[in-house]
């Protein structure tokens, strides 16, 4: 009898515990980094996560990182399920934790790619890349795809040794590189196309005082990257939810406002192979480049 009572007591205690465990809310975490206006951190993406929660039928929470390394590490540790990260960061995440890409963001022109540009002042006397030797150039950051990796590779292909033929500085932002150029502190600025339009409120005379010397190869846009151990069914659900989000007026406006994205198109790892090839050409270690 005593044994039966002990058994019933254990069952009574265990059942509520099992019930509580089953009721634990499932959460999908969306990671992101500052992508618009350089160093401005977006504080809240609640309107976006609320729409995605309805689409997926599961609560979606935002995971805010001060730089993309935080999202890359989150994808590897399982703290982040999917995130919006630059192409260089995707390749690093893929290398580190087998993270995968499902979508690429579209820009204002409806393209899933963009380029970097070389800007010079109209009165600089620089007419070709051969004139760049002996000049001072502003890159953005040593880990920037459009602000260093691709511009650096382009200069090398033009026969310029970036360690011997030029002097260079890291401006710390595309807008800051443009400012240095307009101030006369440098001779050439590397930015995305076209930073002069993006920052026209800050630099209203940039268009009339500068010109484009040339462009780099095309670069894949921001990626939607999922953690490496995510099952195929959830991958498809997240992909379809984001595609549907971009089709709605409210969702598209949020993407534009928060991330400067104008939609998505499906993507594969092959689309980002040019990042690996350019990093190898520039002798940049993906892990150290962050």
UniProtKB/TrEMBL annotation:
CDD domains linked: PBP2_PhnD_like
Keyword terms: Signal
Solute-binding protein family 3/N-terminal domain residues: 27-262
Gene3D superfamilies from the UniProt entry: Periplasmic binding protein-like II (3.40.190.10)
GO cellular component, one term: ATP-binding cassette (ABC) transporter complex
A Pfam family it matches: Phosphonate-bd
Record-linked SUPFAM superfamilies: Periplasmic binding protein-like II
Stored InterPro entries: PhnD, Solute-binding_3/MltF_N
GO biological process assignments: transmembrane transport
Assigned protein family: Belongs to the phosphate/phosphite/phosphonate binding protein family.
Protein name in the entry: Phosphate/phosphite/phosphonate ABC transporter substrate-binding protein
Species the sequence originates in: Tissierella pigra
